[in-house]
């Protein structure tokens, strides 16, 4: 069972650093999306969207406490705003929605399960929440039902792969460096190995 007491200073710093690092990566990812969109068209956003969920997966998997997924996405959005993102303050809403979508999945496990399937499901949760948000914001109801279905499926797949699976890969790579020693992920892995 995870330690649900308040966050330690180290955990707070880790989530803050992750938010800042991924904010920079997210801003770079916008350029990838714009180039791909120019080549492949509007559904490209749904194909690449999952990468914008990855900090929530990484932070939650490392910290394993309520709120880690949500806070990390909001922090990443805030740093992007400070770095001059053209999306402006609305980006905070986007980050909150995406973080909440991932957080709901971790909450469903009572913050006890961080296996690859759960991390991928958290990416899908973020995708579903973000799809609902963009539906409202960009009036997706005016689009053809077939296109909507394709967009939704692509976004969920992207959330599972670029959010969940990639988040898992990043966390495992960080764990192997020893930098996560003493954190909840380390305790869980040591208990599982015993």
Could you characterize the architecture of this molecule?
With 194 residues, this protein is an all-alpha fold. It has one domain. The chain is 76% helix and 0% strand. The protein contains eight helices and no strands. The protein has helices spanning 9-40, 44-48, 54-63, 68-82, 90-108, 116-138, 145-177, 184-193. Helix 1 packs antiparallel against helix 3 (54-63), helix 3 (54-63) crosses helix 7 (145-177) and helix 6 (116-138) crosses helix 7. The protein is globular.
Attribute tags:
194 residues; 0% strand
Summarize the structure.
The chain has one domain. Helices cover 76% and strands 0% of the residues. The chain has 8 helices and no strands.
Question: How do the strands and helices of this protein lay out in sequence?
Answer:
Elements: H1 9-40, H2 44-48, H3 54-63, H4 68-82, H5 90-108, H6 116-138, H7 145-177, H8 184-193
Helix pairs in contact: 1-3, 1-4, 3-4, 3-7, 4-5, 5-6, 6-7
Structural class: mainly alpha
Span between termini: 16 Å
Give the fraction of residues assigned to helices.
over 70%
Tell me about the biggest sheet?
A: none
Strand content: under 5%
The outline comes out as globular
* Number of helical elements: 8
**H-E string:** HHHHHHHH
For the secondary structure, the number of strands is 0
């Amino acid at each position: 069972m995870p330690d649900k007491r308040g966050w330690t200073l180290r955990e707070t710093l880790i989530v803050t650093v992750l938010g800042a690092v991924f904010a920079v990566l997210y801003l770079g990812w916008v350029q990838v999306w714009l180039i791909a969109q120019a080549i492949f068209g509007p559904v490209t956003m749904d194909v690449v969207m999952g990468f914008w969920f990855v900090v929530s997966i990484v932070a939650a998997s490392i910290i394993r406490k309520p709120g880690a997924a949500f806070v990390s996405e909001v922090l990443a959005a805030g740093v992007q705003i400070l770095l001059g993102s053209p999306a402006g303050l609305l980006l905070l809403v986007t980050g909150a929605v995406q973080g909440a979508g991932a957080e709901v999945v971790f909450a469903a496990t009572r913050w006890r399960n961080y296996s690859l399937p759960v991390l991928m499901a958290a990416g899908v949760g973020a995708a579903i929440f973000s799809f609902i948000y963009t539906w409202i914001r960009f009036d997706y109801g005016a689009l053809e039902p077939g296109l909507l279905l394709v967009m939704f499926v692509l976004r969920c797949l992207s959330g599972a792969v670029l959010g969940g699976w990639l988040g898992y890969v990043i966390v495992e790579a960080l764990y192997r460096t020893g930098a996560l020693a003493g954190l909840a992920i380390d305790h869980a892995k040591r208990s599982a190995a015993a």
